[in-house]
Design a protein that fits this description.
85 residues; 0% strand; extended
Length: 85
């Protein structure tokens, strides 16, 4: 128990959400790979940081939110290219 991060109910709840989100994202990946059985998917690129929060509906994103998201995608893409080399 010393090694767990679940010191209280809120930490346990956050951990549960992290696990739930992981499997939700993995289901998206599996759905795509099942939809294209002839394609050899070798790399999955995911954001290294959370994108800026701009409310429940993405249409409320500001220009700064969009610029931040584009910059994050660009740097993550460059990192992925460097890893492949």
């Amino acid at each position: 128990m010393r090694d767990t991060d679940w010191k209280d109910a809120n930490a346990f709840h956050d951990r549960k959400n992290d696990i739930y989100n992981f499997y939700g994202f993995m289901e998206d990946v599996l759905r795509i790979t099942r939809g294209y059985p002839g394609v050899n998917f070798r790399h999955i690129i995911a954001p290294t940081e959370n994108p800026p929060d701009h409310g429940y509906i993405p249409i409320f994103a500001t220009l700064e939110n969009i610029k931040t998201e584009i910059a994050l995608g660009y740097t993550d893409g460059l990192k992925a290219i460097e890893m492949v080399k």
